[in-house]
Amino acid sequence: MAKKILAAVDGSPLTRNVISAAVEEARCHGAELHIVHVLENAWAEGDVARELAIRDLEEEAASLLSSMKAEAEAQGGEATLHLLRGHPGDRIVDCAIDIDADMVILGSLGMSKVKRMITGSVSLFVVTHCPVTTMVVKPSP
After folding, report:
1. How much is the pTM?
2. Cα gap 17→81, rounded to integer Å
3. Residue 36: what are its φ and ψ, rounded to 5°?
4. What's the rounded Cα separation, in Å, for the pair 76 and 41?
């Protein structure tokens, strides 16, 4: 039985579906729900323009997390929020381990093989490296 569920969100069109699936799983198992969003660290420190851009991204990410918490609450759930920085796959796996999650739920946008080779697939990385059950929400056909 799952006691803690981690939902990873990225703001894509699948985000609401991920939250819905996570709230349903949490309700079925009587589990705590945690929601994580990861900002990639792709910038060097020190440049004022970059720091302002990063601050804007952090504000957008905090807004996304707040709206996902409100979405979870509207569906009858409660959630703890986590805003992290780094490689999304690594940080999602780390967060699952840190909070002692029993399940991770995230979306998969179904990238083309070429795009997946260039950018990597976060969902594939998490499924491959996460030590707990992982549910991947796919887009509706």
Report:
1. 0.85
2. 17
3. -120, 140
4. 34
